[in-house]
Amino acid sequence: METVIMVGQLLLALSILVGLHELGHLVAARMFGMRVEQYFIGFPPKVFSFRKGETEYGLGAIPLGGFVKISGMIDESLDTAQLHLPPQPYEFRAKPAWQRLVVMLGGIIVNVITGIAIFVALMYSLGSTYIATQDAKYGIVALEYGKQIGLKTGDRIVEINGKSFDNLADVTSPDVLLGNNSYYTVERANASGSLERIRIDVPNNLAEKFSSKETAGQFIAPIFPFDIGEVQLGSEAEKAGLKAGDRITSVNGKPTAYFHEVQEAVKANKGKAITLGLQRGNQALTIRPVVSNEGTIGFFPNSLLKETHVDYTFGEAVSKGTERAFGVIYDNIRGFAKIFKGEVSPSKAISGPVGIAKMFGGVWDWTRFWSLAGLLSMALAFMNALPIPALDGGHATMLLYEMVSGRKPSDKFVEGAQRVGMVILLGLMAFAFLNDIFFK
């Protein structure tokens, strides 16, 4: 069922974003009197279609894209039959270069507007909830990749690149992961118990570790006191009598105050019965659950760290949402730069449909859905703007050349460029699919 939900969210998001992208081309073409022959979401074979006026609207069976066919334009269909006839007034090729450029940029513009609108709406309706640095007073748990760069459990990260910061999430922000020569300043207790400040350099390839949920979750976590948030039905914790609201005070007689202490003690006793000391209201209790072979007993913690919530006015949401949207494009540029420098492996950085579906998760969460839809909308705008033949950016590049030089590329050259572009795109799609399946 989780797989169905993941795939369903991905297909819905792509259908919305691709439909709007192609609608941007359609509206721009119609605005300049061009004939639009087809508007399809998905690629052939055709599932169904209907005709309205001169345009056929339809749905393709392969839901990983879409297209608009404009008369007199050499596109990914490589249909050049019309080009052997004199240009007609309603054809793409008969219009001025600037109008053709607007048509080619129409989809990108709509995706940018959509991405901004989604992030503005999220900022305005939900605001921002985060753990302030000053409230993460117990420090951090250094997990596998955190330990590799020199962090230790109990460290307090007080500065990033020599500057103080307010939001604990900034520790793993794109500015750190995609920047160069970043570093943390941490406060750490020395042998005498006094605090000293230490510089921890961030490797330029650390972004590789954040290529999936699993590896990203092995960097750091805040140390937090907790009580029991939810007990899983049928779990060993439920059978032993653990209840929501309980506080675990010890494991096998060893006092515990924080979640990571309980988690580590439980994992150290896989397949064994353990003794948990509990505080339930004014009662002190003891239970003996059996730890699973995975090192869990079946509960979710409720963090008792203070969270800060900020609501935004509409004007503030417009500013924050726009900044967030264009931040996606900036992060993509920095990510590609890391790949070209050899600091990040393409197999770690590039995700296909399978990897993107996993990002949505197996539970339908509308906030996460729209957050990812906004991110995908801006990523689609960026990718389509790349100067690769067969993409909007490739068409735009040739049109800009025509406008600057006053010479239109020959139809034969455009057709050849489209063929090369299709080979590149198909190769990238194949790489993304195989990478998701075999290397992630």
Automatic annotation (TrEMBL):
What is the protein's name according to its record? Zinc metalloprotease
> Is NAD there in the keyword field?
no
Identify the main location: membrane
Tell me its EC number(s), please: 3.4.24.-
| Annotated InterPro entries | PDZ (IPR001478), PDZ_6 (IPR041489), PDZ_sf (IPR036034), Pept_M50_Zn (IPR004387), Peptidase_M50 (IPR008915)
> What Gene3D superfamilies does the entry give?
2.30.42.10
The gene name reads: rseP
Q: Which residues cross the membrane?
A: 101-124, 369-391, 420-439
> Per the similarity annotation, which family is this?
Belongs to the peptidase M50B family.
Its cofactor is:
Zn(2+)
Annotated Pfam families: PDZ_6, Peptidase_M50
Where can this protein be found?
Answer: Membrane
SMART domains, per database record: PDZ (SM00228)
Q: Which organism is it from?
A: Fibrella forsythiae
Q: How does the UniProt record describe the way this protein sits in the membrane?
A: Multi-pass membrane protein
Keywords (alphabetical) are: Hydrolase, Membrane, Metal-binding, Metalloprotease, Protease, Transmembrane, Transmembrane helix, Zinc
Stretches assigned to the PDZ domain: 228-282
Q: Which GO molecular function annotations are given, in alphabetical order?
A: metallopeptidase activity
